[in-house]
Amino acid sequence: MADYPTSFDKDDLLKCARGELFGPGNAQLPEPPMLMMDRITDISGDGGPHGKGHVVAEFDIHPDLWFFECHFPGNPIMPGCLGLDGLWQLTGFNLGWRGWPGRGYALGVGEVKLTGMVRPDRKMLTYYVDFTKAVQTRRLTMGVADGRVEADGETIYQVSDMKVALSET
């Protein structure tokens, strides 16, 4: 494991987006408005229910977030795909946090269940990413994880078998 902290604030996440946290050519988060979290509260390479690593992060919900105005006019809802993207972002972040080189790419997801919505009156999303596999070989660097998103403590999204790879090309 690399010697990175186990929590990150918004400034740290923005450094990652600029390529300053893990170094040029390595895992980066997107910049706002596509950055789907405000802080990472806990991260590990050996925690979680499977002992393969985990991430917990939070995203503050404000009524003026960019997606509420356009999705949908008069009926504002955060697109579910943005919650899924947040989980993918955190999966790739964990691989970079481990010190593994390369840029992150989402490869897929096994199953997605959306059972709730994020409306402007919600206050906070909490992301949970639990790795089931994390491999680094000469030819492959990949994480496989399950995830869930809670809105104000209520589980609203669940995914299984998210896959993110790191590639040096």
From TrEMBL:
The keyword Cytoplasm applies. The keyword Lyase applies. It catalyses: a (3R)-hydroxyacyl-[ACP] = a (2E)-enoyl-[ACP] + H2O. InterPro entries: FabA (IPR010083), FabA_FabZ (IPR013114), HotDog_dom_sf (IPR029069). It is an enzyme of class 4 (lyase). One of its GO terms (cellular component) is cytoplasm. One of its GO terms (molecular function) is (3R)-hydroxyacyl-[acyl-carrier-protein] dehydratase activity. It is found in: Cytoplasm. One of its GO terms (biological process) is fatty acid biosynthetic process. Keywords: Cytoplasm, Fatty acid biosynthesis, Fatty acid metabolism, Isomerase, Lipid biosynthesis, Lipid metabolism, Lyase. Its EC number is 4.2.1.59. Its main location: cytoplasm. Pathway: Lipid metabolism; fatty acid biosynthesis. PANTHER family: 3-HYDROXYACYL-[ACYL-CARRIER-PROTEIN] DEHYDRATASE (PTHR30272), 3-HYDROXYDECANOYL-[ACYL-CARRIER-PROTEIN] DEHYDRATASE (PTHR30272:SF8). Belongs to the thioester dehydratase family. FabA subfamily. Homodimer. This is 3-hydroxyacyl-[acyl-carrier-protein] dehydratase FabA. The lineage of its organism: Bacteria, Pseudomonadati, Pseudomonadota, Alphaproteobacteria, Rhodobacterales. The gene is fabA.
